[in-house]
Amino acid sequence: MAATKLQALWNHPAGPKTIHFWAPTFKWGISLANIADFAKPPEKLSYPQQIAVTCTGVIWSRYSLVITPKNWNLFSVNVAMAGTGLYQLQRKIWHDYGSETKEVSEKL
User: What pTM was computed for the model?
Assistant: First the structure.
């Protein structure tokens, strides 16, 4: 049974014999780098970079469900990109705008 599933994966139109498998696989490096940046202080994050990561994730997630054959590896990596980008944007916005209101209320 496992051999049959491996054979099906190997022969899939978006399987390891095609670029449709390897491009999203290597794209996981961007998501992993963004996850590693969770430890980075929010003031070091870049709005343009995180907006680009988020938009890329959202746009290509949609595209990966429209193309034939459906490429679930591409879909999952782009969902991860959108998620990590949104999280980083939330951290940056909270740091830039949320902390100012705290400081003002502390001064009063």
Answer: 0.80
Query: Token pair for residue 47?
Result: 């709005």
Angstrom CA distances, 22 to 15, 18, 38, 57, 72, stand at 8, 7, 26, 17, 12
Nearest CA to 54 among 90, 24, 84, 93?
Answer: 84
On whether residue 11 sits in a domain, the answer given is no
Residue 12 covered by a domain: no
Model pLDDT, residue 45: 95
Do 86 and 33 contact (CB within 8 A), yes or no?
no
34 and 85 Cβ atoms separated by less than 8 Å: yes
pLDDT in the model for residue 15: 84
Domains of the chain: total:
1
Report the mean per-residue pLDDT for the chain: 89
